């Protein structure tokens, strides 16, 4: 019999108030402590922490965030889809249903790769005017120029069950998917040869079904890819670099300013070096070797490559940046549109070039690397071990991730791409309010994608 307590409220004189009658508990078994120990205890399995949590923020007018909300139009009661701009990190529902491993933010579009043994390994959302998200026909099989939510990108894998995605890259209107055993797949705009295939005049890229596959180059396995504005860089397993695409500012590093439609080995002063990282968001390129030395080529209008007073504005072959010496071993580099960054093994961040360099509103140009005070990234007497472990950049904004998983952003706040909840530009690093540990991120022109882990 269940325990019962009955409250009986009677109308009586004020001095007595309410009368409560409690019925006694009747037990089916005697209160024997020994019997209580024999009752089995059930332990439920703990919830497995999510491997990667997906956050997006910035401009959402083109569907690049993969999230939309629906409003009822005032006129005629029609349903109208309105895209929102998010000035703070938004946890994307797509990441709750898929295990996202890699992300790439392009110019108004986004790519996601997931853990999946089936054919749908890559998803995309946002602008698709040049088939940078593959052919998306919808129900009527007509080309769709904009996607409001992540959809599968059709890629012709030879071994669907075995092939794994190891990297993604996104440019202005082209995309690159890197696999472990099938090379790379490129699709999208190829006006300058950035997809590594033959350029055809008057080719219509809208609604294109073309997906170009490159197994290897000179017998070497492709390790990673980096997309600039309209050029592509490949890092090989032996540390060599190959490039193709637009070369008007020397960003291909092939010794000339012409466009190249086939991936060609980059030589210059990186020949014979084992490159471990390449970075390019526009037309300037930085490369880092295994010794911690920095190389660069491409646009140098703002002293990204050469020092102040240099007579060249473009460098079409890789050169060793001697101005990056004397700062300790460099472990990471990032090249934005008009500024560059590097990170040493002590966790110190250095910036140079033109723009918002992260050292306040006055410091907007510098021809040599200068440090951003480590205290801005949380290093104090109370947190002496706090240090930056990776740096990232978009076209005009930058970011840094610490060993504690904290994310800091600064730069031009176009489309609220900084995720700080403010409208104005940010002139020094400020921490982004993400409720989880930030692992990595990809920054486009006006939106940002972050992969985080649980605290």
Automatic annotation (TrEMBL):
The lineage of its organism: Eukaryota, Metazoa, Ecdysozoa, Arthropoda, Hexapoda. Coiled coil: none annotated. One of its GO terms (cellular component) is mitochondrial inner membrane. It comes from the Eukaryota. This is Uncharacterized protein. GO terms for biological process: positive regulation of mitochondrial translation. One of its GO terms (molecular function) is guanyl-nucleotide exchange factor activity. PROSITE patterns: RCC1_3. It comes from Menopon gallinae.
């Amino acid at each position: 019999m269940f325990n019962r307590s009955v409250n009986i409220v009677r109308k009586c004189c004020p001095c007595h108030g309410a009368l409560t009658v409690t019925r006694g508990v009747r037990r089916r078994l005697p209160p024997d402590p020994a019997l209580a120990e024999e009752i089995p205890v059930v332990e439920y399995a703990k919830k497995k922490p999510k491997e990667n949590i997906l956050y997006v923020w910035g401009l959402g007018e083109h569907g690049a965030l993969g999230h939309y909300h629906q409003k009822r139009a005032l006129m005629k009661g029609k349903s109208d889809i309105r895209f929102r701009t998010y000035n703070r990190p938004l946890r994307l529902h797509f990441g709750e249903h898929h295990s996202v491993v890699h992300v790439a933010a392009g110019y108004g579009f986004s790519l996601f790769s997931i853990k999946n043994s089936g054919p749908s390994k890559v998803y995309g959302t946002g602008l698709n005017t040049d088939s940078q998200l593959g052919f998306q026909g919808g129900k009527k099989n007509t080309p769709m120029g904009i996607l409001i939510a992540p959809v599968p990108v059709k890629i012709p894998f030879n071994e669907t069950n075995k092939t794994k995605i190891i990297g993604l890259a996104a440019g202005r209107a082209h995309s690159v998917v890197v696999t472990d055993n099938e090379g790379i797949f490129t699709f999208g705009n190829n006006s300058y040869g950035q997809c590594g295939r033959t350029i055809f005049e008057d080719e219509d890229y809208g609604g294109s079904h073309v997906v170009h596959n490159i197994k290897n180059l000179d017998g070497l396995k492709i390790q990673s890819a980096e997309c600039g504005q309209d050029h592509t860089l490949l890092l090989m397993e032996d540390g060599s670099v190959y490039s193709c695409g637009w070369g008007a500012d020397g960003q291909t590093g092939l010794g000339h300013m012409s466009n190249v439609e086939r991936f060609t080995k980059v030589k210059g002063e990186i020949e014979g070096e084992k490159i471990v990282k390449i970075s390019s968001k526009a037309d300037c390129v930085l490369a880092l070797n295994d010794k911690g030395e920095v190389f660069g080529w491409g646009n140098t209008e703002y002293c990204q490559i050469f020092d102040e007073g240099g007579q060249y504005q473009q460098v079409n072959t890789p050169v060793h940046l001697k101005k990056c010496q004397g700062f300790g071993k460099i472990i990471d580099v990032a090249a934005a549109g008009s500024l560059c960054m590097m990170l040493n093994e002590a966790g110190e961040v250095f910036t140079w070039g033109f723009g918002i360099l992260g050292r306040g509103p006055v410091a907007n140009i510098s021809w040599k690397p200068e440090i951003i005070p480590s205290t801005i990234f949380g290093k104090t007497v109370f947190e002496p071990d706090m240090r930056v472990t990776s740096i990232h950049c978009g076209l005009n904004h930058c970011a840094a991730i610490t060993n504690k998983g904290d994310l800091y952003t600064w730069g031009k706040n176009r489309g609220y791409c900084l995720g700080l909840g403010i409208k104005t530009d940010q002139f020094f690093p400020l921490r982004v309010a993400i409720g989880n540990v930030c692992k990595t991120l990809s920054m486009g022109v006006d939106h940002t994608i972050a992969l985080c882990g649980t605290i």
